[in-house]
TrEMBL record:
EC number(s) given by UniProt: 5.4.99.16
Top-rank taxon, per record: Bacteria
Residue ranges with Basic and acidic residues bias: 50-59
Keyword set includes Isomerase: yes
GO-annotated molecular function: maltose alpha-D-glucosyltransferase activity
Domain Glycosyl hydrolase family 13 catalytic per the UniProt entry, residue ranges: 180-360
Name listed for the protein in its UniProt record: Maltose alpha-D-glucosyltransferase
InterPro entries the UniProt entry points to: GH, GH13_cat_dom, Trehalose_synth
Stretches for region Disordered: 1-20, 39-59
Organism in which the protein naturally occurs: Arthrobacter ramosus
Annotated Basic residues bias: 40-49
Key words of the record: Isomerase
Length: 754
């Protein structure tokens, strides 16, 4: 096909050949028609300010000390954002890319199989940084051999807070960002750029993180407390006059803020300062977090006035929420600047949007919680972020637990891709119960809502818990009736049934090595989900046969995620088969109730440090059932090698960019059938068995053409043909799956139909 560049070139050489140009234009996409001359690889460039760390100055860290205020300003994200944006403003390169609409299939062209890293858990060679390890060509050679096209780094920029001149530790796994600078514990900016170059050399891309909902208590928050220039406008923070300090709780010695009680929240609302209660309190913990608001200690401003503030935090107290509709638009400037730094300075190709559903908050009618979820401002802010990223040639995905309706709505103008939190607990439920009915229900609901499966990121494990909040059923559809397991259940009833099944099957007596994480879900790895489902209670005494069975089930779950349209994502914990860490080994980390640390065991992906007992961040090494990638790639029976065969066929058929068109009823409750239309217009059928017994059953769908030959995509063997009832028989072994391609019946005259 002619490219826009070649069309422009040819028309310049022969201006009279309008007919050829018109014919060529009819073959290219909408975006290419409207941007016919843009260079495909053209990207704007800008650099963050480089501030030298000259050590601690001999001055008090106080707002009345101009040296300290200037030091904070030089470290601030808003300062970097302003510098970045000024370099890009007015540049022609900022107008060369289409940006108005999400383009999931363009994102899939860039990368449809992702490796999701977690910096704190990644074991490196002695003396090597996390980013230095990710820049190694040997790692990318292994990824290329498996079929991995992108690496999601996880958060690697400096996070935590600042107290005086001193940096303090992150309170949420580096999702409390305080700087655009790379955290020195993970490496350097040059190592980050080297990682991006290594990815490009292997036809891959790097996915970075931005956090548009909050920061940590870093320089920006400290300047905001000081009431310095635009900085208070970054946050949802309200100055409380000294005359009303009696409404605020005392801040304990050694603390800089304290969570307010429900009574104080109500009093401040009645006084007109805050909007009060929100729709829910995430990470609720008695005496630790009872509301979404905290009060600061008295802080001196740059004008010498002492002030106390009340600030919003959807998550932990160290994560003050960003205000997207302050008149200064300081919060928006900070977030956009952080995104641009990653894309046009460091060289990434995509961004994950963390906690991007909590960007709008509004007062509701009296006695009702404030409107804080599903707010139109969140959608508008996401559209702005995603559009800016597309404007400089990148793409975005949101890792947010949304209803199916919200996924559909945000797909219109927002991020290009959304994480699939709807069917992930559903396929775990299918494995635990041997029944795919709930999984089939969720897939059908997404189809009915018009969600394009190709716009979803289907993942195995990420750094979080197995989320099973099932917000689709517990929020907008909690009173709707669903027929499930022979019963008519409300949405709330569906969620309760599924959650109980997962708790009973994956924790407690069934699997003491997995733990509940608040009300959000279960702290576990994919491998420890499988061991629990297989009835293995003691991870230390597993036999070789049990490990092989875990590997086979892990491959089944990979096939569910990979043999359908969209992104397939997996982690180092998946590739190595890491099980949950003994809670005693992370006792200090889980002491505040965050049990997710048991599913974040350290792992040596490339076998570069076999003697290491922990990562450089101090996380204990988890038990790996499968071994390192170099070991696995030498073994044709290994998880990584078998997975590579699945991904190669997925790539060959361009399954990622296909369309899910039917999830039919099945002849056995443990079977799942997904009918898909490939980009070639051929029909592919994914058949999976979530039980420990072989199944002989019928695959039936009105979309299967009678007479079509059924071919095994992996072996090329013709198995049978579709009968007049639009069905065919198929055998699928225990905990296994197949990908079948239908060849249309011969047309009249003996010629095969196209």
């Amino acid at each position: 096909m002619n490219t826009p560049e070649s069309i422009s070139r040819e028309s310049a050489e022969d201006p009279s050949d309008d007919q050829a140009v018109t014919a060529a234009l009819s073959e290219i996409t909408y975006d290419e028609q409207f941007y016919p001359a843009r260079p495909r690889q053209l990207r704007p460039k800008a650099r963050r300010r480089q501030m030298l760390d000259e050590g601690r100055p001999p001055f008090d860290p106080d707002a009345r000390n101009a040296v300290y205020v200037e030091w904070l300003r030089n470290q601030s994200m808003l300062g970097d954002a302003d510098a970045m944006s000024r370099q890009l403003s007015g540049q022609a390169s900022m107008w060369q890319k289409p940006f108005a609409h999400p383009s999931p299939r363009s994102a899939l062209d860039r990368a449809s199989v992702w490796f999701t890293a977690y910096p704190l858990s990644f074991i490196t060679a002695p003396g090597q940084s996390f980013l230095g390890a990710l820049a190694q060509p040997s790692l990318w050679d292994a990824f290329q051999e498996i079929g991995i096209h992108a690496l999601h780094t996880g958060p690697v920029k400096r996070a935590g807070g600042i107290t005086g001149w001193d940096y303090t530790a992150s309170v949420d796994g580096h999702f409390d960002r305080i700087s655009m600078a790379i955290d020195p514990s993970f490496g350097t900016e040059e190592e980050f750029r080297a990682m991006c170059r290594a990815a490009t050399d292997h036809g891959a891309t790097i996915v970075d993180d931005i956090v548009p909902g909050h920061t940590g208590k870093g320089p920006d928050f400290r300047l905001a407390e000081m009431n310095y220039k635009d900085y208070p406008g970054i946050y949802h923070m309200i100055h409380i006059p000294e005359s009303d300090w009696h409404l605020l709780p005392d801040v304990p010695e050694g603390k800089d803020s304290v969570n307010i009680s429900i009574d104080a929240e109500r009093a401040l609302q009645e006084a007109g300062y805050i909007i009060g209660q929100l729709q829910r309190v995430i990470f609720y913990e008695p005496d630790i977090k009872e509301t979404n608001w905290s009060a600061t200690r008295a802080v001196s401003g740059t004008d010498g006035t002492m002030r106390r503030w009340v600030y919003l935090h959807y998550f932990k107290a160290g994560q003050p929420s960003i205000n997207w509709l302050d008149p200064t638009f300081a919060g928006m400037r900070l977030v956009i600047g952080d995104a641009l730094h990653s894309l046009v300075d460091l060289g990434t190709g995509a961004l994950r949007l963390d906690a991007n559903g909590f960007l709008g908050v509004e007062k509701s009618a009296e006695e009702l919680p404030g409107w804080s979820e599903g707010h139109p401002l969140s959608q508008a802010a996401n559209q702005l972020i995603a559009s800016m990223v597309r404007k400089v040639g990148g793409f975005t995905f949101q890792e947010l637990n949304l209803t199916i309706d919200d996924i559909k709505e945000t797909s219109v103008n927002g991020p290009d891709l959304s994480y699939d939190f709807v069917t992930r607990p559903a396929y775990h439920h299918a494995l635990v119960t041997g029944n795919t009915e709930f999984l089939r229900l969720t897939l059908r609901l997404a189809m009915e809502a018009g969600v394009d499966q190709a716009s979803l990121v289907h993942g195995l494990q990420n750094h979080d818990e197995l989320t099973y909040e099932l917000v689709h059923f517990t929020t907008r559809h909690k009173d709707e009736t669903f027929n499930l397991f022979g019963q008519n259940l409300t949405g709330a009833g569906v969620a309760e049934r599924i959650q109980n099944d997962l708790r009973d099957g994956l924790t407690g007596e069934a699997a003491p090595y997995n733990l509940l994480f608040t009300t959000n879900g279960i702290a576990c790895t994919t491998a420890s989900v499988i061991t629990a489902a297989l009835g293995i209670r003691d991870l230390e005494t597993m036999t070789a046969e049990q490990v092989d069975q875990v590997r086979d089930v892990h491959l089944l779950l990979s096939m569910y995620n990979a043999l359908q349209p969209g992104v397939f994502a997996l982690s180092g914990w998946d590739l190595c088969g890491v099980v949950s860490v003994d809670v005693d080994k992370v006792a200090q980390l889980v002491s505040a109730g965050d049990t997710r640390w048991i599913n974040r065991g350290a792992h040596d992906l490339m076998g570069v440090n076999p003697g290491a007992a922990e990562s450089s961040s101090g996380l204990p090494k988890g038990r790996s059932l499968y071994g390192t990638l170099p070991e696995q790639l030498k073994d044709e029976t290994s998880f990584a090698r078998k997975l590579s065969a699945v991904l190669a066929k997925r790539e060959e058929l361009q399954l990622a960019k296909g369309e899910l068109i039917d999830v039919p009823d099945v002849s056995h409750p443990g079977m799942l059938v997904m009918v898909q239309r490939l980009p070639s217009d051929a029909i592919a059928v994914t058949v999976l068995n979530f039980t420990g017994e072989g199944i002989s059953g019928t695959v039936n769908s009105a979309l299967l053409t009678p007479g079509a030959e059924v071919t095994d995509a992996f072996t090329g063997e013709t198995l049978n043909s579709v009968d007049d009832l639009h069905s065919f028989y198929f055998d699928v072994p225990a905990f296994a799956g197949s990908l079948l391609v239908l060849r249309e019946p011969a047309a009249k005259g003996g010629e095969e139909a196209p």
